[in-house]
Amino acid sequence: MSSEMTVERRMLEALICPRTQTALRYDAEAQELISKVANLAYPIRNGIPVMLEDEARVLD
User: Fold this and answer.
1) Where are the alpha helices (DSSP H) in the chain?
2) Are strands 48-49 and 32-35 parallel, antiparallel or unpaired?
3) Residues 6+ apart with CB under 8 A from 56
4) How far is CA 48 from CA 11, 14, 55, in A?
5) CATH 1.10.468.10 fits 3-58, yes or no
């Protein structure tokens, strides 16, 4: 893993859920930030996290 990818991953993992203020899990394969507490997945589009509840996907 390159240094750039490590920094990006750390920055993504530092974000918190706007609804619950809890930690998010970065899903690199799906390009989403997962909030287990809120049961939402926030998309990452073109490398930019979209932290809007209206854009989040409800988890099954």
Assistant:
1) 3-14
2) unpaired
3) 35, 38, 40, 41, 42, 43
4) 11, 14, 13
5) no
Task: State residue 27 phi and psi, 5-degree precision.
Answer: -105, 100
Q: Which band of pLDDT confidence, cut at 50, 70 and 90, is reported for residue 6?
A: low
> What is the model's pTM?
0.84
- Distances from the Cα of 47 to the Cα of 9, 30, 31, 33, 38, angstroms: 11, 12, 8, 12, 22
Report, as an integer, the average pLDDT of 56-60: 95
For the chain, how are helix, strand and coil distributed in percent, rounded to 5? 25, 30, 45
